[in-house]
Amino acid sequence: MAAQYGPVGMVGTGNMGGRMTRRMIAAGYAVLAVDADPGRVPGCGAVPAHDLAELAARCDVIMLSLPDSSVIEAVIRGPAGLLEHARDGQVIVDLSTADPASTRALHDELAGRGVRYLDAGISGGAAAAEQGTLTLMVGGDETALASLRPLLGTFSAHVHHMGGSGAGHVTKVLNNFLNGVTLAATAEVMVAGKKAGLDLAQLLEVINTSSGVSFASLNRFPHIIRGDYLKGGLTGRLMAKDVRLYLALAEDLGVPTLVGPGTLTAFQVSNALGYGDMISNRVVDAVGDLAGGVRVAEQEE
What we know:
Blueprint: E1 8-11, H1 15-26, E2 31-34, H2 40-43, E3 47-48, H3 52-58, E4 61-64, H4 69-77, E5 91-94, H5 100-111, E6 116-123, H6 125-131, E7 134-139, H7 142-152, E8 156-163, H8 167-195, H9 200-207, H10 215-224, H11 236-253, H12 260-275, H13 283-290
Parallel strand pairs: 1-2, 1-4, 2-3, 4-5, 5-6, 7-8
Antiparallel strand pairs: 6-7
Helix pairs in contact: 1-6, 8-10, 8-11, 8-12, 8-13, 11-12, 12-13
């Protein structure tokens, strides 16, 4: 099955892209890749491509794992970009978190060249990418998605077709907003619990068997209170970007957002305090700084 695609193209072999690339290679797929930092490509086992033109010429399936829509647009629309070298029948799978309006515009432009563009938001973080258990939420042509399920299955356990172009990225924005809300809220609770003199491990046991349970309380803070911040996940700057995408989406949809501004403020403040390039879990340290230098971790790894 791996051979039917020829080499798979990958644009972006960083935190998530590199892990997904390694999963594809382990399953027997050849991967040809480009990255803003060319040194990262051999590190994940891929073969470096000279440029996007070579990637487009040699790969029928191209995946993108990029930080935001401005970078995605540059890769597709820019000089010597994928749009310029697109071929009829190609499929581009955008695994990034992006502005759904930009996604739909790119979809229409690429469709004019005979390229099917799937927006495939991913969830699960670095650990799930490493283990091949990501959840994918996909918008775009369902037939194209069906043909790629074996390939996507090398790094994902759940693949959901959400609808037409942009639906995958809309779903991703909604999911990431909830991710940010619960992370910031649980960070506050952990700092408050620490200042109140509670045993945080026991506090988490209570929360995780009660109505306050969340992904953050189940999967993040049991590690964080032991000093393991789970490095390698979404940075604070990217989390703030994702919350901004939600605020823009809510405004476009005419949906009031009462929780959104506070969530964005939490990560903006955290970033301003110096945690922006660290994993977004460090928002708990920013809250601790504001609470007088509190650290919920017993010791840091």
